[in-house]
Amino acid sequence: MLKRFGPYVILLLSLVILTGCFNGSPEEKIHKILEKTAEKESDFTEHQEPLNDLEKKEKEKYEKIIKLGLDDYEQIVELSDEATKNIDQREKIIEKEQSSMQSSKEQFNQIDEQIGKIEDEKIKKEATEMKKVMSERYSTYDNLYDAYQQSLAYDRELYELFKKEDLKMDELQVQIKKINTSYTKVLKANEEFNALTEKSNQKKESFYDSSGIEMADSTK
Fold it and tell me: What's the CA dihedral at 158, 160, 161, 166 to 10 degrees?
């Protein structure tokens, strides 16, 4: 049976507030860059609920199809077409998320110049470590995006198979194996991305502490 994993959770980096005046210092400029970086990712939180709903609906259609017999071919085709439309919708959401992440990455890369201008060696070290972890996070997201796109492609193939009147069981089993393997990769990339997001937040907090910048209270 086809294994299903829930939608990947993308943890948004917290916005921060500046509590001191650095008169245009590199630390202040990095702070502003990171604020804009977080803003670029704000669409993620809006997309997770609709993506979750779409995945649940697609799973329901899959389960209905596998319960039908050969005499229900027309219904199988109808459900398969609906599932394909569901995949189209999910793909649009993922493309929007990927676009947001790329914009965030471009914004983030602007900190390189500012890190080189930091005079305090401790603060520079904190900033350098933060950049390394956050860069790894962006790379991991690229892996996550690619894995999710591949899983959608395999899902499309599955529903085309269901529409074959002469579908053989071994064809179906091969496709389901491909999908399960693909979703395992999605899950692994998702876990790595979320772990790096948490680590990025920790590195940001260390940098802010060293610079005299206070993290905003996310509960307010």
Answer: 170
Please tell me whether residue 96 adopts helix, strand or coil conformation: helix
End-to-end distance of the chain based on CA atoms, in angstroms?
44
Which H/E stretch holds residue 214? strand 214-215
| Helix axes of 121-162 and 43-67: crossing angle, nearest 10 degrees | 30
* Predicted TM-score (pTM) of this structure: 0.83
Distance from C-alpha of 190 to C-alpha of 141, rounded to nearest angstrom: 8
Residue 189 has, within 13 A of its CA and on its CB side, a CA count of: 22
Beta bridge partners of 215: 16
DSSP 20: S
Categorize the per-residue pLDDT at 215 as very low, low, confident or very high, splitting at 50, 70 and 90.
Answer: low
Per-residue model confidence (pLDDT) at position 117: 93
- Buried b vs exposed e over 41-75: b needs ≥16 C-beta within 10 Å? bebbeebbeebeebbeebeebbeebeeeeeeeeee
| Dist CA 80 CA 67 (whole Å) | 13
